[in-house]
Amino acid sequence: MSRGKRYDAEPKLNIKKVIAVIIAILVIIMFVVGIKELLSDKKNTKEKIFPIGYYTIYENGKWGVIDTNQNIIVEPTYENMIVIPNNTKPIFICTINSNYETNTFETKVLDNKNEELYTNYDKVEAIYNNDKSNNLWYENNILKVQKDGKYGLINLEGKELLACSYEEIRPIEGTKNVLITVKEGKQGIVNNLGNIIINNEYTQITSLTNKCEDGFIVKAENGKYGVINYDTKVALENKYDEIKNIYGNNSYVVKEADKWKIVDKENSYLENEFEDIKEINLNNVVAKKNGKYGIVLMATKEVKVDYTYDDLQFIFTDTYIAKKDNKYGIITINNEEKLPFNYSNIKYIEEADFITAQKEDSQSELIDRTFNVKAQGIVSEINTEKNYIRLRASENYKYYNFKLEEKESTEILSANTLFLSKKDGKYGYINNKGIVIVDYIYDDATEQNKYGYVSVKKDGKWGALDQTGKVILEPKYTLENNLVIDFIGSYHLAEDINANYYTK
């Protein structure tokens, strides 16, 4: 007699199958959560409030103002360029009623509500300056004002810093935070707080160097020159025929009785020993003889470096960039060669304390102060605000801090929401977790600017994305003549980067 299967015993669990099911469920949960986070990351890429700035725009032949959230603040209806002295402040100086025959004009100043400011003055102007490289800047915390034909100064809040009692107020070329004033035909100096540094007693004033702290060369009515320090004390009496714009070791280069020499408060040095002086660094003097530069000790006249160089420039600790036979190298005052004469140019970046040495092929070496080469490539940016260097090497961008240590862009640009990335010869963007936010479809692209926008190039045309990677402007501009590619919304930076305006 056959017997059936017995089911009366307690059922047994298959432990292996149970564990497998649990693992499968966990994997599904993790997958779903991962997809959810990925979609969330791509959809809501680190939403961040970027700073608000204000910029002049040019559209259809007229001038206006836009903020960095793409809002039109002043409609582009003005015939003349609107000046914004400080891009973080809603203060817009509009020129009106210009008469080019008489060279006269009027101004009005608007805020971001289109309300007029500083109406108690006849005219308000920004104070602009430029350096030897023609880089333009505005004194960003003061304005020149005019009333009843006289000039004074106010700050951006409208507080009077200097009464309207001067015939003229103007900057000293290349020197920040100080201004020349003219009263009854005589020149004086005030700082950007309106404090008087030099009374209006001189026929001519220039800065001794591009640092106002080094003092000023003043010319008296007798035609003689002297020096007044920033603290208002007289450093040199007005008794010299000429004074060069050179200062070092509390010493000055002067001409007296047709003889050039170096003087300090008590002594004179190297009288008639040189054709020209370029620098004074402690006791070392870069001097010129027979058309060539060398280094001589100020006190003893000992020639430390022979007069054989086309140029010499001090960088640090008895070390100089030297030019010879149209090539650059680095030497010490003891004639030790620290870098060979193999470079087309060498610069010392003082703020960052490193050296860039450029070769003929535009490749540069980043070199520390012990003269070790730390990186090579094309330097595309040296950012002294965030203390980093951006280098293009083998078609990729690399980042270094000012210690010349290589860093990831996410470390250097930690405030960004998008980070430039390259794959298979194309550019896209990732977030700080490495997740691809913008696919690799662009031929070229830029890092995110401080307002959150990125510029992208496709098929020879440039466009823009916002901080989440959303397309604001499909690529449509060639921008072949633009040295810098930058967008605020759908407006791009104009060709003249000194003019600092945006256009379409």
Q: How would you describe this protein?
A:
The protein is 7% helix and 51% strand. It is flat and about 70 Å long. It is mainly β. The longest helix has 29 residues, at 15-43. Mean pLDDT is 90; it is low at 1-14, 31-40 and 42-46. The protein has a domain at 344-405: Beta Barrel (Thrombin, subunit H), CATH 2.40.10. It is built from 2 helices and 49 strands. It has a 7-stranded antiparallel beta sheet. A 6-stranded mixed beta sheet has the order 3-2-1-49-48-47, with no helix packed on it. A 4-stranded antiparallel beta sheet has the order 7-10-11-12, with no helix packed on it.
Topology of helices and strands:
Blueprint (H helix, E strand, L loop, with lengths): L14 H29 L10 E6 L2 E6 L4 E7 L13 E8 L4 E7 L5 E2 L5 E3 L2 E3 L5 E3 L3 E6 L2 E6 L4 E7 L1 E4 L6 E6 L2 E6 L4 E7 L1 E4 L8 E4 L5 E4 L5 E7 L1 E7 L2 E6 L2 E5 L4 E2 L6 E6 L2 E6 L2 E6 L5 E7 L1 E6 L2 E6 L2 E6 L4 E7 L1 E5 L4 E5 L5 E4 L5 E11 L4 E6 L2 E6 L4 E2 L1 H4 L6 E5 L2 E5 L5 E7 L1 E2 L8 E5 L2 E5 L5 E7 L9 E2 L2 E3 L7 E3 L1
Parallel strand pairs: 1-49
Antiparallel strand pairs: 1-2, 2-3, 4-5, 5-6, 7-10, 8-9, 10-11, 11-12, 13-14, 14-15, 15-16, 17-18, 18-19, 19-20, 21-22, 22-23, 23-24, 25-26, 26-27, 27-28, 29-30, 30-31, 31-32, 33-34, 34-35, 35-36, 36-37, 37-38, 38-39, 40-41, 41-42, 43-44, 44-45, 45-46, 47-48, 48-49
